[in-house]
Amino acid sequence: MSLALWRSHLAGTLHRNRSLPVSRYLQLATVRANGRPANRTVVFRGFLENTNQLKFITDIRSEKIEEINFYPWGEICWYFPKTREQFRIAGKLVLVAAEDTDSALCLSRRTAWQELSEGARSQFGWPHPGADKAEAGAFDSAAPDAHEPLPNFCLLLLEPETVDLLELRGEPQNRSLYGRDGEGNWFVRSVNP
Amino acid sequence: MSLALWRSHLAGTLHRNRSLPVSRYLQLATVRANGRPANRTVVFRGFLENTNQLKFITDIRSEKIEEINFYPWGEICWYFPKTREQFRIAGKLVLVAAEDTDSALCLSRRTAWQELSEGARSQFGWPHPGADKAEAGAFDSAAPDAHEPLPNFCLLLLEPETVDLLELRGEPQNRSLYGRDGEGNWFVRSVNP
Predict the structure, then answer these.
(1) Do A192 and B128 touch (CB under 8 A)?
(2) Residue B2 covered by a domain
(3) Residue B171 pLDDT
(4) Is A25 inside a domain boundary?
């Protein structure tokens, strides 16, 4: 596969914002089963090897699982404070759960688990997210195995279909829309901000 | 009206993050006419006087107008880097456009225009957002009147129905869900993060 046209710009942006840990935080919008939008912060975990798919992680017990199973489409909004650039990336969402049968994806899920800090791994052993707050002791479980993911650990992938890049620096600002032609090749056009 | 239960927490958060201009930036998710989610950064412009409604501004020519007219519901995700708190606020979206007949809302729209910088006001005189990039000269119009909004200037309001507050500091993190009872009174419950 070839790197999508917008990847080099994003790589430069990530590099220029590397001093800010928050530059790996972005907001993922999905649609709830009742048709209303949902929106939350997630952490960018890099690209799936040899693809243009963005990696995130989530807990199978979180609300977004139901939303994605109902309608597997998302749009991320990724704002970089230092360089004042915004990437809006829309595309299909793919969940890689414990029972996934694709061996390459299973390996990627396992690798994502191994790359987590011990503290982050422990959260997957906590009581059910969103349920009435459990007693403090319920959060004191032993650290999970560092190599084998807990069953409720999921890898979440976003396969981009469109990218809307806004560069706020400049007068007027630069805005570029990236899309794919009938053969899947990426193209870009400059539009008004 | 009385201040909603979550307002004092948000006021404290805004105060503690006041050194960061980016703390007034947040992400607004809506649903497109084709059912897919949309997500973009908007700037918080304070609360509408004597209400719990959050104020934003937008251009009547932007894509979100069509989305809101089609389905007037939004969810904002507002992450504060300094205090590591996230507010997810869902509710009804209300557009206040030039032809609005509510005199109080018309006044609020006019005030929002007057509070903008000259540079921000000028953008409402620029060529159509999202159209093929116009020549540089098309962005050189004279500064618009500082008192009377251009016709395409809109005030956008979010009337909160639910608030999901996550405080990442702490182990485990604190998460609070705010909602309204049958009589419209706000309540809160603590849930697992």
Answers:
(1) yes
(2) no
(3) 84
(4) yes
| Inter-chain residue contact A36 with B134, CB threshold 8 Å | no
The answer to whether residue A136 sits within a structural domain is no
Asked if A137 has any chain B CB less than 8 Å from its own CB, the reply is: no
Across the interface, do A79 and B25 touch by the CB < 8 Å criterion? Answer: yes
Gap between the Cα atoms of B76 and B88, Å rounded: 6
Indicate whether A169 belongs to any domain: yes
pLDDT for residue B118: 95
* Residue A184 touches partner B, C-beta closer than 8 Å: no
Residue A57: closest CA among A69, A44, A66: A44
Whether B41 contacts chain A with CB within 8 A: yes
Tell me, yes or no, if B169 comes closer than 8 A to chain A by beta carbon. Answer: no
**Tens digit of each residue's pLDDT (9 = 90 or more) over A118-159:** 999 999 999 999 999 999 899 987 899 999 999 999 999 999
B90 at A interface, C-beta within 8 A = yes
Is the pTM for the entire model greater than 0.90? yes
Identity of the residue in A40, A74, A177 whose CB atom sits nearest the CB atom of B77: A40
- Closest CB to A39: pick one of B29, B119, B123: B29
Q: Look up the domain containing B18 and give its range.
A: 7-191
The total number of structural domains that make up chain B: 1
* C-beta atoms of B193 and A123 within 8 A: yes
Give the span between the Cα atoms of A173 and B139, in whole angstroms: 10
Give this complex's ipTM: 0.97
CATH number (domain holding residue B187)? 2.30.110.10
pLDDT number for residue A171: 84
Instruction: Identify the burial level of A187 via C-beta atoms within 10 angstroms of its C-beta, where 0-12 means exposed, 13-18 middle and 19 or more buried.
Output: exposed
Residue B4: CA atoms inside 13 Å, Cβ hemisphere, count? 24
Of B38, B126, B133, the CB nearest to A29: B38
Selected for mutation to probe chain B from A133, A140, A161 (highest B CB count within 10 Å) is A133
